[in-house]
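Write out the 3D structure for:
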Amino acid sequence: MATLLRGAEVVSALNERIQSEVAALKKRGVVPTLAILRVGEKPDDLAYERGANKRAETVGIAIRQIVLPETVSQEALLTEIAQINADDSIHGCLMLRPLPKHIDGLRAREALLPEKDIDGITQGSLAGVFSGTKRGFPPCTAKACMEILAYYNIDPAGKNAVVIGRSLVIGKPVAMMLLQKNATVTICHTKTKDMPSETKRAEILIVAAGKPGVVGAEYVSPGQTVLDVGINFNEEGKMTGDVDFSAVEPIVGAITPVPGGVGTVTTSVLMAHVVEAARRAIER
């Protein structure tokens, strides 16, 4: 039976650390502040916003909610982003996406300063991830994977790590972050030949395939650490991952559950980024 790498324990430790850092910043007269920029009233956006608000309240981070109508023009949205950039009391911005179809999403993302991009959506932030510099921030889900490994004392150094998926949201950035921790990294994708032969030799396997249950018993080996980043819903409305948990869990050494794994940690990582952005602003 595998060890379950539960996100709740990681969140508890992260929140404790964030609360301490927020208190230290407030003693210096700085209140870490997150702007949540939402366009329209999509249920998914509202749910994520509620979760972010609740987590921010828990750790003492202030929230500025900026709500624009679904019909907002490109220029009006860019003006709002420019005001966020110029406001020194706002340390980070969460731009809820996807944006409406009439909005140029890339243009909107690139209008945000990397210094305030706490969810890794700008090219500046991604450049920071790939170069190993502290410009912007990595995507929160990718960083959540690294936080889980750190909390459970799973050191990537010298290990074979395999990542399934090559998106800019998870696959590529988490591969670079593993590389920075001195792992030997392989990225698998839809064109990979004989993927099970690649994944079975991994000591750390991160699955962000975007397809429910795609990783079964034939993909894994005893003793592996498996992080399942997938979020899918079956016909009964039950959340499932990209890993066939019932088939894989009896074989591997450790695995994140879905739900209750990587996704649980993401919002706390977002708050940690806000605090770091506030600290960097003081240093600048």
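Residues 262-283 form the longest helix (22 residues).
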